[in-house]
Amino acid sequence: MFNPAGITLISVVVVVIRVVVVVIVLTVVVVLVVVVVVVVVVVVVVVAVVITVVVVVIVLKVVVVLVVVVVVVVVVVVVVLVVVVAIVVVVITKIIIIIIIIIIIIIIYNYGSSSSGSGSTSTTTTNNNSIGSSSRSSNRRVVVVVVVVVVVVVVVVVVVVIVVIVVVVVVVVVVVVVVVVVVVVVVVGVIRVVVVVIVLTVVVVLVVVVVVVVVVVVVVVVVVVLVVVVAIVVVVITKIIIIIIIIIIYNYVVVVVVVVVVVVVVVVVVVVVIVVEVEEGG
Q1: Which terminus of the chain, N or C, has fewer Cβ atoms within 10 Å?
Q2: What is the pLDDT of residue 120?
Q3: Contacts for 177-184 with beta carbons within 8 Å, 24 or more apart?
Q4: Per-residue pLDDT averaged across 201-211, rounded?
Q5: Where are the transmembrane segments (predicted)?
Q6: Closest to 168 measured CA to CA, from 82, 86, 90
Q7: Cα–Cα distance between 235 and 231 in angstroms, integer?
């Protein structure tokens, strides 16, 4: 038997089932997309952190190597300078000592020749003796003055050389300390920058992940709402269409029945009229 209500119910059930299936599929797809996005973001963050740490380690190693090289070079330069200055001091001292010895020998030789010359003749006068004694005393003064001057010069040279060595060593030490301090400051600055970059990267990645998840959830909600609304609209439209079809079908059946009844009535009337006429004519 024809049951329009059954057809309407079946149509609604079919539409609801389709809507549920579509919503489930969309939800699964969205969840998978969110999972993939989160995994990709986490992998990117991990890779970025690892790369940053590796770069920091490499920078630290390079800085340490540079500091060691600088210190070694400075120490070598200091040692070389000290050795060179010491050699120069020794050479200058030897030269000065040799000059002193030569001067003393020359003075002694002149003094000896003066003495022997004054004592070789017995006919020397008193004036000659006084001249000889004065020349000997003057020679002694010259020797003393020369020795004192040479000693003072040697002492001054040695003091100057020692002062130069001390100044060079102090300057080198100060330079080394300054270089090491600068390197340490640079390293600390680089490490701070790297840490800030890592923190900012992690924060940005987390913000991106949160934004992506929120967007995906909003999209899922919007899609589900749209699907439900569309399903409701489809169900309503389907019901309206089915009702219209039912009305049309009912109207069509009524018209057909009326026509059939009219036709039957007309046929019956015609047959009755014909039968009556035939009977009257006979």
Answers
A1: N
A2: 46
A3: 179/67, 179/70, 179/74, 180/67, 180/70, 180/71, 183/63, 183/66, 183/67, 183/70
A4: 80
A5: 7-26, 32-57, 64-89, 95-112, 142-162, 168-188, 195-217, 223-246, 253-276
A6: 82
A7: 6
Total count of domains within the chain:
1
- Number of Cβ atoms within 10 Å of the Cβ of 219: 14
What tokens were used for 221? 């909600």
Q: Is residue 17 part of a domain?
A: no
Report which of 94, 90, 96 is spatially closest to residue 161, judged by C-alpha positions: 90
239: in domain:
yes
Question: How far is it, in rounded angstroms, from Cα 182 to Cα 98?
Answer: 49
Q: What are phi and psi of 2, to 5 degrees?
A: -70, 125
Q: Which one, of 154, 148, 165, lies nearest residue 91 by Cα?
A: 154
pLDDT tens-digit map of 31-68? 888 788 788 878 887 887 888 788 878 877 887 887 78
Q: Between the CA of residue 255 and those of 248, 249, 260, 263, what are the distances in Å? A: 10, 10, 8, 12
Which residue range forms the structural domain that includes residue 235? 41-115+132-281
DSSP H or E run through 15: helix 4-119
Whether 14 maps to a domain, the answer reads no
Mean pLDDT of 202-229: 79
Task: Report the alpha-carbon angle 192-195-201, nearest 5.
Answer: 140
Q: How many helices (H) and strands (E) does the chain have?
A: 2, 0
- Taking the C-alpha atoms of residue 20 and residue 32, their distance in angstroms, rounded to an integer, is 18
Cβ proximity of 114 and 85 under 8 Å: no
Interhelix angle 4-119/126-281, rounded to 10 degrees, is: 170
Q: How many residues does the chain have?
A: 282
pLDDT category of residue 1 using cuts at 50, 70 and 90 = very low
Q: Is residue 83 part of a domain?
A: yes
Whether the Cβ atoms of residue 36 and residue 209 lie closer than 8 Å to each other: no
